[in-house]
Structure formats: C-alpha cells, structure tokens
Specification:
Layout: H1 3-8, H2 15-26, H3 34-47, E1 51-55, H4 61-69, E2 74-79, H5 82-94, E3 101-105, E4 120-125, H6 132-139, E5 143-151, H7 169-187, E6 191-196, E7 202-207
Parallel strand pairs: 1-2, 1-4, 2-3, 4-5
Antiparallel strand pairs: 5-7, 6-7
Helix pairs in contact: 3-4
Length: about 210
C-alpha cells in the first residue's frame, strides 16, 4: 500500500498486535498485510456482522484485529497446524478475547460443521490455497442469505499473471490452481463476486438471491 495512504488509515493498536507482528516477522509466518486488513475492516463496518468464520487462523493476527475493532463480533476460526493453533490461543488470551474468539484445531475440510454456529454473516478463507474451491463449496452453506465470503491471496504475489516465468514445478502448479479458482469464482452464477487488487488480491462474493 502506498505509504501515504497507509498512514491515513487507522488500524487497531494494541501491545498484543505489536507482539504478533514481531513474532510473525521473526518466524516468517504469513499474516494479512495492512492493505488487506483495512479492506476487511471496511467490510465489517459495512456488513456489521454478528458472527464471523475464518478458515486458516495461523497465529490469530486477523481475528484479534477484528475483535479489537468490533467489540460485539463473535468469531470462530479453524487452524490445522497444532503449533500455530496454540500460538493463536496464547495471543487471544493475552488480548482478553477468549470469550469472543473460538479456535478449533482441525483440517477445515474434515471438520464437523455441526460444531459451528448455524450461519455466519462473513466467512473469510485464507488457508491452503490449493483447496480454495473445496473450502468455498463446503462452507458456503454456512452463510446467511445476504452474507459475504472473502477470499485472500488471489494474486499470489503477482505470480498468477506471470505463470510462464515460474521455474519451480510445484510453485507453478500451486499458482495454476489459484488462477483456476479465480476463474471458477468469476464464472460462479450462484455468487456475485467482485475482485480487488488490494493487498495480495481479494475477492468479495455475495450469494445471488433469486
């Protein structure tokens, strides 16, 4: 994000958030950047969700920011990695948010959806990128009729428009899967989706009410 614009946008400030940023940088753990976070906070402001579901907790950076930004939101979040799950729990407790953020340690594709709230106003997908279509299809029915699904990292550091220049076969294969998801989502008639070159690429999808 342009540094000038970044300075104009105000994000939650808390000692726990500062600690999380430092931990993520030191341990090379991907967290949402300021531009993407600003976009999500704007959507929270507009939608005013009561329930928020996140697929891919990591250390809990995004949900801690959300809970500090909106004092009424209740969040469920799923993380597959046990070490990251525990780190998220620790930070959430440090921020005194345990009553509003529920973290589940599980593979989101094998998770018992009956353990979750019936419906969510916003679902945020930010987990294994190769599984985005599967996440979307599995969790779309947990969305309220006028809710939105947000998906992140759709530009994948700009690689989706430079696939031919990727030397690594594994990286090229993953990038092709992300591009396939983007095309699938753009053509999905069940949802109206808008794509934004914000952060690392964000899509906002709302179910088409017939």
């Amino acid at each position: 994000m342009n540094k000038y614009i970044a300075q104009l946008n105000s994000l939650p400030t808390h000692k726990v958030i500062k600690a999380m940023r430092k931990y993520a940088e030191t341990n090379k753990i991907p967290i949402i950047n300021d531009e993407g976070l600003t976009m999500i906070l704007l959507l929270v402001d507009l939608v005013k969700p009561k329930r928020f579901l996140e697929i891919g907790t990591a250390i809990g950076y995004c949900v801690v920011n959300l809970a500090l930004f909106n004092s009424e939101i209740i969040i469920d979040t799923i993380e597959k990695n046990p070490a990251l799950y525990q780190q998220a729990l620790d930070y959430i407790e440090m921020a005194n948010l345990s009553e509003r953020i529920n973290v589940y340690c599980a593979d989101a594709l094998d998770f018992d959806l009956n353990l979750l709230t019936d419906k969510y106003d916003i679902i945020f997908i930010d987990a294994a990128k190769a599984q985005y279509i599967n996440y979307f299809e599995l969790y779309k029915n947990k969305l309220v009729s006028n809710g939105i699904i947000i998906t992140d990292n759709l530009l994948f550091h700009g690689l989706v428009v430079n696939i031919n220049n990727i030397e690594s076969k594994d990286l090229r294969h993953l990038t092709e899967k992300i591009k396939k998801f983007n095309q699938w989502l753009a053509k999905n008639k069940e949802f109206q989706t808008r794509f934004f070159a914000v952060g690392d690429g964000i899509a906002v999808s709302q179910k088409v009410i017939k």
